[in-house]
Amino acid sequence: MSTLDYIVLLAYLIGVIWVGLRMSGKQVSVKDYFLGGKDLPWWAVCFSIVATETSTLTIIGIPAVAFGGTMVFLQITIGYLLGRTIVALVFLPRYFAGELTTAYDYLGQRFGPRMQTLSSITFMGTRLLADGVRLFATAIPLKVIADSTGMDVGYPIIIVSIGLLTMSYTYMGGLKAVVWMDVIQMGLYLLAAIGSIWVLLSNLPEGGLAILEASGKLMVFDFGNWEINSILTQPYVFVTAVIGGGIFSMASHGTDHLIVQRLLACRTLADSKKALIGSAFIVALQFAIFLVVGALLWVYYGGASLAELGLSRGDEVFPRFILEGLPSGVSGLVLAGILAAAMSTLSSSLNALASSTLTDVLSKVRAWNEANYNPLKASRLITLMWGIVFMFFATLFEDQKNPVVELGLSIASFTYGSLLGAFVLGMLSERVKEKEAMIAFGLTIIVMVGVIFGVWYGPDTGWIFVFKPDAAVIAAGNLKSIAWPWYTAIGSVITIVVGTSLSYLHK
To answer: 3-state SS string over 117-174?
Structure first.
């Protein structure tokens, strides 16, 4: 890290606070604070959606996929487009038909307040686990830099610093500040990725691109062998990526308030549809850029394995190149891009969590309503509270061997099926009552814990159920779990079947 790199980082941090506060405008109501006054342009919301679903894990994780494999991850964007199109055509008209503040308002109107509160609390737990891990992951490269310069800075100090910077504009400006900062931060991390590609192309060995093409690492489509066991256990074969990825996208962009909040902030239903469907194309382009980074890194390092590079994980490859291979100034730009992705996700979570807490939980409590609190002041205080919780929670992951890290990274797999199934039940079945929907919702989460941790397939054993198989057996490739894109589909089916079946117990 050079002086220029530190200047770039410092300029970004100062600019974040200044621009975020300037973009926020005047907040006079809860509608302004949580929905930007429903006056945000669709293209800004589109970019904000992409920036929100992009985190540090995306920036360092997707290059690792291409470094260790091929480009087949890109197939999943076809499913993302299909899923978001269904949400735009089926879900959004229902959301815009009523004056909704959160996605779970719909479940409250359809089933009742208890279902609304249950789904909201599930959303809060999902965001706290998943985004708490992402916040900690952002601190890792910054800690590496601090250690390399001889500075003894612990993870808690880094996490609190990132948290306070993000809270500064989220607390004052609400969703409007978050969305406009998302637009800027997305541009920054994409510029950083393109800068990395430029440097890599300039330093490839002679014939490097030909080597890359001959290696087969540029393969995009993988249709597999069309056997059911292969489809269920391989996450990136075409059928799994398109169908599983499509259903996952329906849940993440149709039932997760983190995304739905932005869609509700658009001026019209048509604008909301354009923002959502447009985000699928931008995500595809973004994934392609990061996959190219990973493929070029493979050529840059001469096709060396992780062990030969002295690395233990694929997602350490890009951070190593940032510190060792990028010229002065570009390293600072890429690290600023990593910070931008993390702050975008964190600010979005803070505003969405505050919105859901006030609308879906506290507004259902009689004592809260009788106290007659100022809604705007309460919204800001709740945002501040969630910021403190996030910073504390992220510091718990300092022990990177903590198994909760794995839970945080895959937590959406446990809950998205229940959420999507509940929304589909509400839209398609008039028989299902609140109690039946809640039973189906809770049962699905319990069953999915067993499916995710306990269901395995092996060529010698077939499908088996065991919670703690031998790690060596898994590492040898003799046992495979169900591919993650299918988790949401399985959970949705369970919720729909159980809820519908229970509804036939009454007239």
So the answer is: HHHHHHHHHHHHHHHHHHHHHHHHHHHHHHHHCCCCCCHHHHHHHHHHHHHHHHHHHH
Q: Which helix (H) or strand (E) holds 41?
A: none
- Domains in the chain, number: 2
Same domain, residue pair 11 and 79: yes
**Structure-token match 């604008």, residue found:** 271
For position 409, what pLDDT does the model report? 46
**Residue 432 CA: distances (Å) to CA of 147, 445, 490, 501:** 57, 19, 20, 9
Does residue 263 contact residue 40 with C-beta atoms inside 8 Å?
Answer: no
Burial classification of residue 410, based on how many CB atoms lie within 10 Å of its CB (0-12 exposed, 13-18 middle, 19 or more buried): middle
The predicted structure's pLDDT at residue 202: 87
Q: Which of 256, 249, 246 is nearest to 106 (CA)?
A: 256
How many Å apart are CA 220 and CA 390, to the nearest integer? 37
Together in a domain, 434 and 395 = no
Contact (CB, 8 A) for 293 and 194: no
374 is written with which tokens?
């100022």
Q: Identify whether the C-beta of residue 367 lies closer than 8 Å to the C-beta of residue 358.
A: no
Fill in the DSSP letter of residue 362: G
Residue range 135-161, pLDDT digits in tens: 877 777 777 667 666 677 777 888 888
For 230, the token pair is 């292969």
Closest CA to 476 of 458, 462, 463, 464: 458
Q: Which residues of the chain have pLDDT under 70?
A: 1, 24-25, 144-145, 147-150, 313, 369-370, 397-411, 470-477
Phi-psi region of 204 (alpha: psi -120 to 50; beta: other; left: phi over 0): beta
C-alpha 348/C-alpha 283 separation (Å) is: 17
Tokens of 149: 């310069």
What is the C-alpha end-to-end distance of the chain, expressed in Å?
A: 70
Range of the domain at 490: 403-507
Do 212 and 131 share a domain, yes or no?
yes
> What is the widest separation between alpha-carbon atoms in the chain?
75
Same domain, 374 and 437: no
The reported pTM is 0.85
DSSP 363: G
Distance CA 340, CA 334 (A): 10
Q: Which of 401, 417, 447 is the C-terminal boundary of a domain?
A: 401
Which domain-ending residue is among 378, 401, 424? Answer: 401
Do the beta carbons of residue 425 and residue 496 sit within 8 Å? yes
* Domain identity same for 349 and 450: no
How far apart CA 500 and CA 439 sit, in angstroms, is 11
